[in-house]
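Q: Here's a chain of 358 amino acids. Please give me its 3D structure as tokens.
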Amino acid sequence: MLSSLSIEEDYWSDKMIDKYKAWYELIKLGNIGSLRKDINDFFKGNILNIMGEEGVFDYLVEEREFEEISKQFNYTDTEFLNELLSVLVNDGVIAMKNNRYIVDTIEHERKLPSIFTEAVIDIWNIHAQFIPNRLRGDFMEFTGGFNLFNWDDALTNRMYGQIRKSAFAYSGVLKKSGKFLDVGCGTGYGTAAIWSYYYENGKINDNGSCIEIIGIDNDKQLLNIAIDEFSSMVKKQLKDKPTENILNNCVPEFLEGNAEQIPFDDNTFDFVYASQVLHWTDAKQAMTEMMRVTKPGGIIFGTQNLYPNANPYNELHFKTVRGAGGFFSKNDMYRWAKEIGVKKIKNATPITVFKIIK
């Protein structure tokens, strides 16, 4: 039990209303349980396919020690190899007998989730194809090998949109005004969506009302897309198109920066948002930095897959990228929150939406 910091989802009296709001946005995606299963099956299939192509499973028709596998395939990153083999053992794909590995059962059909676009599938296939390189000690850069406009297309995917809406519904920040930081803004599509939410709620208008929004990312190529395409992204997302005057006078600022070293002074922002960002980082350091730049009483919120609901096959894809720390548990998140002095924290839904008050 974490003293002075609740780890119960019913910490606040409005917990049920907030949770319903979060769920309401997610269920627009359809059957969440079925969707999660299809996505998990997709990531598992990616791993099994690529390791099958490597010849690992053929090699494991006979019992092999860890060192034999490492030497046979020149897998020099033994920590990552151990993680991959542990995932396969825990899932019953391979068995471990007397500290030796052997193929158990490989019966899996990779499914393409109906909600995944071709751009999303392409991005994750590239990650999977890099896993052998990762096992040999190499890393991907965050957008390495991608068509950047495929990356842009992936972020327009309906799934990401509903997850974002779920986080905003849960946080309640659209009822308020203040200085807003979007951490890991990428191409700016999500930032444009955030701008659109405030516009639809009357916080941005021709009468001079404006929300100061700043997006940071450590990839200059993605930031260039954000800067160049922001206005067109907003117009794509709004039926009631804003005037050029509003767009010109209330445009977000996009700056180079990363979650582990946010380039702003202490107590700068009223709202700090990070959606599906923390697993790309040293999560505790990123949380510490988000806490630092948030004003007292300000809100840190977003989304993050957490164990036990997170999928380890998905995590293996993320960990091909340099600096990606991978998934962590809800208990980890709450423990870190306590250590950095968070006042209140709560979360909801299997695709975890969270809200922190400094």
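Q: Can you summarize the key feature?
A: The CA atoms of residues 131 and 320 lie 6 Å apart.
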